[in-house]
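Q: Please design a sequence for this.
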């Protein structure tokens, strides 16, 4: 039976509330979860929800320290968020847990706390000394791989070149192997409207996407580029196992429009599986008791479902063991 660490995220956001809500509404998960974060923030969440205290059978690895004002970014909460990730990562590397699931952090808060990383992805890649760390969103039957992540749109598009795209496609294929899908059908989404209309609406499809796809087709089942306004729908209906999104918002919009609360984010390429919600800290509703726990519940269940198989696949792919 898998056991995972679940970080509480930024204690000034909705993380503690949604984790507590999830474990209260799904008591069967408690024996397989270790919550990592500020126990004080968890107790505050209990009071917000009208509960006397956190149930005794919810295991908590306390990360002590002052907390910033609820609903506001601050260095105190940022520090707790970073230390929670570090502790959960160490637990996973030491095989005390099989994987980790993370509640949302504030990029502003962790920067205020002195972190040199902008997000979980960069931090986990460094903490595990991994060569790469990809992100895949899963929303029902739709899976999305992101070529670029937290960059401005202009910087993201400027960063795209054939070498980067080919490396991304390789990582996309290996990521699917880590999930147990051996011959994935991979589609690449276009950048420009209507797929560029043969160069009338942009050259990127002709100059960089199509040549990269053609080269990588020798090694994998990849096709495209397909117009972005239809390829995600086609994948959601089962035509493709994975869509490669050239930039952040294109893929995020597709997944969240399909199922905002049911979308799970996964990091692949680490020695263990990391899952997460597809939303942020929601400072505007923090401390009000109205945040939905659906996304964190989906992320917890996905990590429990896949973490043991992921480790075996990781060992087989990267270590050559069986």
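A: Design:
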């Amino acid at each position: 039976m898998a056991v995972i660490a679940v970080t509480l995220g930024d204690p000034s956001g909705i993380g503690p509330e949604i984790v507590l809500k999830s474990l209260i509404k799904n008591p069967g998960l408690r024996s397989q979860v270790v919550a990592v974060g500020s126990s004080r923030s968890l107790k505050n969440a209990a009071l917000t929800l009208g509960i006397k205290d956190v149930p005794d059978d919810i295991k908590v690895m306390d990360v002590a320290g002052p907390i910033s004002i609820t609903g506001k970014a601050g260095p105190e909460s940022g520090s707790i968020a970073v230390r929670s990730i570090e502790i959960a990562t160490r637990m996973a590397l030491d095989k005390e847990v099989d994987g980790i699931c993370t509640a949302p952090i504030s990029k502003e808060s962790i920067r205020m706390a002195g972190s040199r990383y902008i997000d979980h992805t960069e931090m986990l890649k460094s903490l595990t000394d991994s060569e790469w760390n990809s992100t895949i969103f899963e929303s029902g039957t739709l899976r999305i791989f992101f070529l670029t992540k937290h960059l401005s749109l202009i910087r993201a598009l400027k960063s795209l070149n054939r070498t980067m795209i080919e490396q991304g496609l390789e990582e996309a294929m290996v990521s699917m192997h880590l999930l147990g899908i051996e011959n994935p059908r991979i589609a690449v989404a276009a950048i420009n409207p209507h797929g560029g209309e043969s160069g009338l609406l942009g050259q990127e499809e002709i100059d960089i996407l199509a040549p990269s796809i053609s080269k990588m087709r020798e090694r994998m089942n990849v096709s495209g580029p397909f117009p972005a306004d239809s390829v995600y729908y086609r994948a959601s209906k089962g035509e493709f196992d994975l869509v490669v999104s050239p930039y952040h918002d294109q893929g995020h919009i597709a997944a969240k429009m399909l199922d905002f609360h049911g979308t799970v984010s996964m990091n692949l390429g680490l020695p263990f599986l990391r899952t997460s919600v597809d939303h942020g800290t929601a400072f505007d509703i923090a401390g009000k008791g109205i945040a939905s726990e659906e996304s964190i519940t989906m992320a917890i269940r996905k990590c429990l479902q896949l973490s043991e198989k992921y480790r075996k696949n990781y060992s087989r792919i990267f270590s050559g063991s069986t």
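Q: Thanks. Anything notable?
A: The chain has a mean pLDDT of 93. The first strand starts at residue 4 and ends at 7.
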